[in-house]
Amino acid sequence: MRKIESHHLEDIALGAAVLGTGGGGDPYVGQLMAMAAIEKYGPVNLISPEELDDEAWVVSVGMMGAPTVVVEKIPGGQEPLQAFEALKAHTGKEISAIFPIEIGGINSLIPVILAATTGLPLVDIDGMGRAFPELQMVTFHLVDIPSGPVAMADEKGNSVIVNGVDSVWSERIGRQALTTMGGSVTTCDYLMQGFQLKEAGIHHTFSLAQRIGETVRSLKHRNQSPVEALVEEVAGTLLFTGKVNNLLRRNSGGFTKGEVSLSGLGQDQGRTFTLYFQNEFLVAEADGEVVATTPDLLTVVDVETGVPVTTESLRYGNRLAVIAIPCNEKWRTVKGIETAGPRYFGYNVDYIPLGEESKERRVLQ
Amino acid sequence: MSYRIGIDVGGTHTDAVIMDNNRQLVSKIKVPTTEDIGSGIKRAIAGLLTQSELDPREIQFAMLGTTHCTNAIVERRNLAKIGVVRIGAPASLAIPPFLNWPKELLDKVFVGSHIISGGHEFDGRRIAPLDEAALREMAAEWKGKVAAVAITSIFSPVDSGDEQRAQEIFREILGDDIHYSLSSEIGSIGLIERENATILNAALVHVARLMVRGFEESLAENGIRGARIFLGQNDGTLMTSDYALRFPVLTIASGPTNSIRGAAYLTDAKGALVLDVGGTTTDIGVLVQGFPRESSLVAQIGGVRTNFRMPDLLSFGLGGGTRIRGEGDTLTVGPDSVGYLLPEKGLVFGGTDLTATDIAVAKGLTELGDRGKLGSLSPQLVESAYATMIDLVEEAIDKMKTTSDDIPAIVVGGGSIILPDQLTGVSEVIRPLHFEVANAIGVTIAEVSGQVEKIYSLEEWGRDQALEEAKRLAAGEAEAAGASADSVEIVDIEEVPLAYLPGNAVRIRVKAVGQLTI
After folding, report:
1. Same-domain pairing of B104 and B164
2. pLDDT digits (tens, 9 = 90+) for A251-264
3. Are residues B199 and B171 in the same domain?
4. Which residues in B lie closer than 8 A to residue A304 (C-beta atoms)?
5. SS (H, E, C) B306-324
6. Please, which of A59, B355, B358, B415 could form a disulfide with B347 given CB 3.0 to 4.6 Å?
7. Does residue B293 belong to the interface with chain A, where contact is any CB pair within 8 Å?
8. Are residues B110 and B143 both part of a single domain?
9. Contact present, A49 and A8 (Cβ < 8 Å)
10. Which chain A residues have a beta carbon less than 8 Å from that of B298?
């Protein structure tokens, strides 16, 4: 067990943005909220997976909604506790620890607020190892642990319990409530026991986010390019370095879809590269050939500073490094690929794990 | 022939030029910046008119670019005492205003801050009714204590009604002499960053008056009465003086943008690094296709996060007046500077402070003042101070470059005399003619702009109509800022669909620029 204090939050937010693969919402808002909560209630205890009792009930907390709404309509601060209390009252369970559902983006830091408010420990496990847009895109879904009952709370004091027959239904119903509640809510869900979380979750990702943040920040201060060290820290591959020369975005079914083209710089001079995104970066194509896809992580950082760039903040002329990071093994199963592979998002290409040679040239149709 | 006068007030020097309508330089001058700003500007204008022998009535436009707002925030000087209100509770209580601000800056401006109920959802519905009683109560509490009030309401870029109503109520109680900053007029979506910019704007109200009134008086005293007055803003375009009084925060970072635009104009270069060396700091920017490269990162001003789109700049504490202390292991270069007092305090000028300019003179890079006054400096001290200065510059150059290839560097600004003709990582050091007044040239040649950013529901508007309306609003803003209607062009359109929401909500930002009305 170790303490998470106010001065750790900046690193965690930075690392969470790297693991957010272009989406997941701006962690800065989460960082400030967590900072205010720790100032008020004191530091949070982070426990490693082995410190969690198998029989203990644990729950995740996070935000759901449009990132643009979250950065404008900042939460009131009581939503995590309110959703937590609603779920506790509904299920009658004594809950003894909290975990992040999604280490990528703002949702890495919402559990810190609830942990500070309740005094309960935070478990160093999450359900994605990255960011994904839908509620069922978690490793718990792969072993049939349902998201529901899902408690949702808004800043006005409204709360809703969704009892979908499965996670996909909970997601669908929740989206409707979300819009009525003003486009951004805090959810408390995936109530389970310690042994389930340990088996089904991805371990040590909270600490990983913190380490990534430390790496990027310390190199920035020493005036070195953080890209190389970052690649090493995450055991990733530098796919491409280039400058944004074309950007397309469109709105479809409530999600931002688009593609961004880069022309190569330095060693990649003369090559072209395209990233396809739906909130997160999902497919990478070099000179027309698919080189990496979801569920592997595609993270994009500013060349000079190593600071991650989101799909919403992309601009013409940005100089970027694209880094691919292997996803957790749990995503590389048949059900994992079905749930979060390229075909689920509508890209007509097979998933081939990062590092494995493709037998034929893969192209998008 | 009609002429325009352009002035750039830096921390150390006030630079000024007169250009004709074909944008040819007629006259240039450099005078020390004075503590009251105005008398320095006055001297510069008088000097220009004497040199050029022009009739002051022929001056049609007067442009002022200044780093005074930036300096005021960074140095925490002349800032106004302000009240801050955020409208949107119960939302946003999790992050109170001023959270994560540098404490010494907060202490300078803070009178009170409240979050009250009101504000809107993304689709224009209300979050809660506006708490007018709370507004009246805080106005009474602040009466006699505040010089300005910053008002920010949630989703005010969609509906600014609550901010306007709050201003009315404050006006009733606090009167017209108090400045009101409304967030919907200053920034875009992103509550904390917009609120921060609004607070800074309110805190700059005294500085704005010093800046604008000083300029008007200086012109009038030199017989320039009919000229239209403009101020340079951070995107390299101009705004009218009335605008600048209301939105001083928009002048922040105009200096570096102007020097990059000026450097481009003077050299015809399309791609290069631009090093603008002033009295206190050096700013390195990147010239891409004749314009400054924009930063993809959030803009921090004096330790406060805002959402301005800034030129991608690296600033570090080295300028002509940078103070050098100690020797051997205790040697330090800056970051403080004697600033505008260089001509009194520098050793070569008979003063007692060792500065970067003295080291440059000792090294023979430039001839200035009286070399004989440097006799007591040990050669080791000169060498190690110089090496430290060059290290600072080369490290910064390396950070701003995106390839390992050497690229040209244009060096401008009065302090650039402390730089040598060769630098590691640079293919060629270019010192254009008129390098010392590049900022003044940049602000003189600038256009005027207008920008609008709003969220539209495409189901309600239809895409084409939403875009048309946004373009119309932006063009209107540019005209309000002084552009002639027939020259207004839309230069930038950005459409960002709002993820995770049905109803096809989309954020549209449009920027228009145009030539000054003649």
Report:
1. yes
2. 666 567 899 999 88
3. yes
4. 399-400, 402
5. ECCCCECEEEECCCCCEEE
6. B358
7. yes
8. yes
9. no
10. 28
Q: Comparing A93-97, A188-192, B19-23, B408-412, which segment has the lowest mean pLDDT?
A: B19-23
Q: What local confidence, expressed as pLDDT, does residue A253 receive?
A: 60
H and E: helices and strands count for chain B: 15, 23
Buried residues in A334-362 as b, exposed as e (16+ CB within 10 A): eebbebbbbebbebebebbebeeeeeeeb
Cα B17 vs. chain centroid, distance in angstroms?
A: 19
Minimal Cβ distance to A72: which of B89, B154, B398: B154
Please name the CATH architecture into which domain A2-205 falls: 3-Layer(aba) Sandwich (3.40)
The pLDDT tens digits for A62-92 are 998 887 788 899 999 999 999 999 999 999 9
- To the nearest whole angstrom, how far is the Cα of B505 from the nearest Cα of chain A? 8
**Of B351, B372, B363, B513, nearest in space to B445 by CA:** B513
Pairs of residues, one from chain A and one from chain B, whose beta carbons lie less than 8 Å apart = 159
Whether residues B195 and B242 share a domain: the answer is no
Distance (Å, rounded) from C-alpha A248 to C-alpha A258?
Answer: 5
Question: What is the structure's pLDDT at A251?
Answer: 65
- Give the SS3 label for residue B341: helix
CA distances from A365 to A256, A274, A339, A349, B110 (A): 20, 14, 20, 8, 59
Residues B148, B118, single domain; the answer is: yes
Cis peptide before A149 (omega within 30 of 0): yes
Which pLDDT does position B296 carry in this prediction? 63
Is the same domain home to B61 and B126?
no
Residue B441: predicted pLDDT: 94
B403:A265 CB<8 A: yes
For chain A, which residues make up each domain, given as ranges? 2-205, 226-340
Q: In terms of C-beta density within 10 A (0-12 exposed, 13-18 middle, 19 or more buried), how is residue B429 classed?
A: middle
Residues 6 or more apart whose CB falls under 8 angstroms from that of B69 comprise B204, B207, B208, B211, B248, B249, B251, B252
The ipTM estimated for the assembled molecules is 0.85
- Decide if B92 and A28 are in contact by the 8 Å CB cutoff: no
Which of B410, B416, B437, B417 lies closest to B27, judged by CA? Answer: B437
Residue of B nearest to A321 (CA): B402
Read off the tokens for A355.
Answer: 């590092």
**Token pair listed for B418:** 């402390």
DSSP labels for A13-65? HHHHHHHTTT-S--HHHHHHHHHHHHHHH--EEEE-GGGS-TT-EEEEEEEEE
Residues B90, B169: one domain?
A: yes
DSSP β-ladder status, B271-277 and B407-412: parallel
CA dist B366 and B364 (Å) reads 5
Q: A96-122 pLDDT, tens per residue?
A: 999 999 999 999 999 999 999 999 999
Give residue B257's pLDDT.
83
More confident residue, B497 or A344: A344
Q: Do B297 and A302 touch (CB under 8 A)?
A: yes
Q: What percent of chain B has pLDDT over 90?
A: 49
Is B499 contained in some domain?
yes
**SS3 per residue for B149-183:** EEEEECCCCCCCHHHHHHHHHHHHHHCCCCEEEEH
Residue B491 touches chain A, beta carbons under 8 Å: no
Q: Domain with B11 in it: what CATH number? A: 3.30.420.40
Residue of A nearest to B296 (CA): A318
- Residue B126 corresponds to which amino acid? R
Structural domain boundaries, residue B148: 80-203
Nearest chain A residue to B288 by CA: give it: A317
Out of A72, A76, A179, name the one closest to residue B190 (CB): A72
